[in-house]
Amino acid sequence: MLYNALNPAPAPLMAGDINQIVAQAMASATPPAPFSAQVYRVIQPSLVLIEVKTTDKNGNPGRGLGTGVIVNEQGAILTSLHVVSRATEIALTFADGTESGAIVAVRQPENDIAVLVSDNLPRVFAPAVLGNPDAIRIGDEVVAVGHPLGLYGSLSAGVVSGLDRAFRPSGDGPRLSGLIQFDAAVNPGNSGGPLLNRRGEVIGIVAGLVNPTEQEVFIGIGFAVPIDVAGGAAGAPPY
Questions:
Q1: 8 A C-beta contact, residue 82 and residue 202
Q2: Of 89, 118, 147, which residue is a domain's last?
Q3: What is the pTM of this model?
């Protein structure tokens, strides 16, 4: 009797208590978000939409589309040179909706890389974190983010398919070497956008895609300039 008085039996569980315990157990067992979802949240504030007005060799007007990524605290924007090489006017749209003109501050034809300087940076922006492309291996998971066919902020996921590849983006452009080959889907509008590792670090700048039919659609082979090469144009230190 004394023991029972000092150590009362626990109150019986009600149906509501059981439901709460089960809900808590299920919530704790919920798997984390896929790595690609986390990577997108990391890189999205650093993305830039690039729209250009162009003229061809015969003086005919045209338009182009590409992607850029902010890579330092000064707001320097890395992209592919072929996105802006024939531009007569460059218009940027940042992740927060800020719009601005821009100029090409640095050109690296040998790497198909350009650095853009914006006329009007957002009040708050987030430079991307640059990774180490020397640390990647064939089979590593990667994500490409850009604006393919004008579809803003699109993500595609894949793996590293090859390293130290060579590729000529256009018939009259220089032959690029030392490229990362990957199979995440890219299409026109992705050029200049970031290729990212699982941690959301930029390991390359998308240079182009290969299609033996000469149609501008993706068939499974994309190339990126390693960020240690591309980032050097914006003053990033080599690894």
A1: no
A2: 118
A3: 0.81
Compute, in degrees rounded to 10, the torsion defined by CA atoms 168, 204, 193, 59.
-30
As annotated, the active-site residues are 82, 112, 191
Q: What does the pLDDT profile of the chain (239 residues) look like in tens digits? A: 555 555 565 556 556 655 676 566 555 555 556 678 888 999 999 999 999 998 877 878 889 999 999 999 999 999 999 999 888 999 999 999 999 999 999 999 999 999 999 999 998 889 999 999 889 999 999 999 999 988 888 999 999 999 999 887 665 667 889 999 999 988 888 999 999 999 999 999 999 877 666 666 667 789 999 999 987 765 655 44
Range of the domain at 66: 45-118
User: How many domains would you assign to the chain?
Assistant: 2
Please provide the DSSP assignment of 11-24 as one string. Answer: PPPPHHHHHHHHHH
Q: Which of 216, 42, 10 is nearest to 130 (CA)?
A: 42
Residue 125 domain flag: no
CATH number of domain containing 212: 2.40.10.10
